[in-house]
Amino acid sequence: MPSANHPPSPSPPPNPPPIATTPGPLATRLSELYALSLSQVIRTCSYSNFSTCFPTPATNTPEVLRSVWAQVTGRIEERAKAEFESICEERDVVGGLNELERLVAEARARRAREGGGEGKGQSRIPPHSLPPETLYLAHLTPYLNVAQRELEGKLVDTRTKNEELVKGIEAGRGEVERLVEGLERVIADLEGANELMGQVIDDGELGKEVMEVERESGLEL
User: Fold this and answer.
1) Rg (CA), the chain
2) How much is the pLDDT for 86?
3) Taking the model in full, what pTM does it have?
4) Distance CA 147, CA 141 (A)
5) How many CB atoms lie within 10 A of CB 198?
6) Closest CA to 80 of 43, 37, 49, 126
7) Neighbour tally for 115: CB within 10 Å
8) Can you tell me whether residue 122 is helix, strand or coil?
């Protein structure tokens, strides 16, 4: 009996190349950026700033205080570098960044073979070659845009509340003005009545009437 033709079994995919442990461009750039940031942080703790916290030793024993400052800043820098190296080793940062570079290189090569992607004559700048300001601005821009939209919304709400408050103040001011006008009219009426009473008293008619009433009631002595 003839044997059936079976399709050849697919060959297993080739294993990925081993990840290099030597720091590549991304890992090197990360170390340089960390060292630069750490030096800037240490630089902010200058001796002049440090000595202002200890005015008495700075005046009496400046050499001792300067030695203490150098030991403290040196110790901080050493511990920060040791922590960074420990984290990089624990998380395999170098291997991860090297693997990322390998994947990016393979994707670019595959895109070039397939003839798609970037146009001719166009070159992309590798991220690790960009300055730190460009990198952190690229990461912060989305968050800054969200914060800007939130602030604009709060500003619109505040402006609306302020307009309503101004309208309420203007309405209250109009009410106060009307009350003041009413009081002024009442005062004018009282002043007119006082003037009229004064004229009556000056004419003597009211005095005569009072004496007549007293006389009738027997109150006159």
Assistant:
1) 46
2) 92
3) 0.42
4) 10
5) 10
6) 37
7) 6
8) coil
